[in-house]
Design brief:
Elements: H1 4-18, E1 27-32, E2 40-45, E3 54-60, E4 66-72
Antiparallel strand pairs: 1-2, 2-3, 3-4
Length: about 70
């Protein structure tokens, strides 16, 4: 299981690889696919206090792979 800090590092690296800007503040949420069982993920959102110009990157908490990466320009 990776830490929240590691998930944040991996999300930032994924954004840099895609050429996307990284805007503070950052919001990180840990979630499970189902209430008791299922895949655990971290969802990282940039520019969290604004609508638009956000990044949403989902990281698998088990092995740290990037499951989803979206730029939300609005």
């Amino acid at each position: 299981m990776i830490s929240e800090e590691d998930a944040l590092f991996r999300a930032r690296r994924a954004a840099e690889e895609r050429g996307w800007s990284w805007t503070e503040p950052i919001h990180v949420t840990r979630a499970r696919a189902y209430v008791i069982v299922g895949r655990v993920t971290y969802e990282v959102r940039t520019n969290a206090l604004s609508r638009g110009n956000n990044l949403r990157i989902v990281i698998d908490a088990t092995d740290g792979t990037v499951l989803e990466a979206h730029r939300l320009p609005r």
